[in-house]
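Materials and Methods. Structural model of Small ribosomal subunit protein uS4. The 198-residue sequence of Small ribosomal subunit protein uS4 from Candidatus Avoscillospira avicola was retrieved and submitted for structure prediction as follows.
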Amino acid sequence: MAKNTQPVLKRCRTLGVSPAAMGYSKTSNKNPGGQRRAKKSEYALQLTEKQKVKFVYGILEKQFHMYYEKAERMGGNTGENLLSLIERRLDNVVYRLGFASTRREARQLVNHGHYTVNGKRVNIPSYLVSAGDVVAVCEKSVSNNRFKKLKEDDAFVAAPKWLERDKNNLQGKVVAMPTKEDIDFEIAENLIVELYSK
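The predicted structure was written out as tokens:
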């Protein structure tokens, strides 16, 4: 299985993404991009936007292109469909519910089979959840120190409005489909659509 091993904070600086969007730091960086050349070409802007989304969600090119093609077939706004599909990935849902501190950690926990969707164990990070699905920690895993600590932890992680979180039972419910407003970092999805539609 291919995986991204780039240094996170260095890549955040290059792409102009706040490390807080990755779950690595709660303090917002005022100028995450550092000093850069003032003018970028149209292609460079489009490519940077695509790389930003791929990096934040930890998706490689082949899979990302498949999401784009699926979003295009769905009808409606392709860019918003694409973001909705990516946001519905199980590893992202686990992270957004606060059951993992980063998306990378969430992917590893899903791979190790610590979560169920509607009572069935799922170990595929790219599994797409739907409205009404219940994502929970497996019964076997609840006794694990990591999840015990999560239950006792007083720090409240605010779940986005499309998810409902039950901390005491270590589960969450997908109450609606995610929209662009639910994404916790700025993204110009129209640039990604322009890049792929060339």
